[in-house]
Amino acid sequence: MIMRLGLTVAVLVAGAAAAQVTNLDAPGNLAATVDPGCVTMAGADVRLSPPDLGLGVLACVGQGDWGAAADLYALMLLRASFDTKRVEDASAHQAGDVLSLQVTDTLSDTERAKLGEALTGFADPAGAQKKAFCQAVTAAGVPQHDPSWMIQHGMGAFLGSEGDGLVKGFDAESAWALILRQDMSCG
Predict the structure, then answer these.
(1) Which of 16, 71, 128, 164 is most open to solvent, judged by the fewest CB atoms within 10 Å of its CB?
(2) Alpha-carbon distance 50 to 31, whole Å?
(3) In angstroms, how far is the first alpha carbon of the chain from the final one?
(4) Residue 174: other Cβ atoms inside 10 A
(5) What pLDDT, on a 0 to 100 scale, did the predictor assign at position 105?
């Protein structure tokens, strides 16, 4: 997660390169279902999907609340990582990276730099920002959001894959604990 945040900071500072791309979207691809506004970690309900949290990031940026924006951005990435473990279609797993780019592409260079600066607080393993974040995300528990935002991003959405798109026998508790430990060094 620290490396991913470092890459995110680099992307935020450098900006996004424009390219000619043809996108085909399945209904629900990267779609938010709730606009939570700029919420604190305590208000970041476990039912908020990564795209919902992306809207929260943008709301916090609009209010100039860089600490809350950074917290929601990191939570967005963690929940996207969780979905890569539970969504069966590997072609859908880049949805979190695409969502991250979509969120940061809407920001000005100055806003990207400020968000990147706020995210550097996660680099200090003993820092107050990381400690508070880890406590909040651990207390909230396992994500309960609908993973269709990612499922609809993969080729299975176009090819008509059977089933619900989730890994059979997925252990959500163990996966979330592993993500918190490995991606964020919480716990």
Answers:
(1) 128
(2) 9
(3) 14
(4) 11
(5) 94
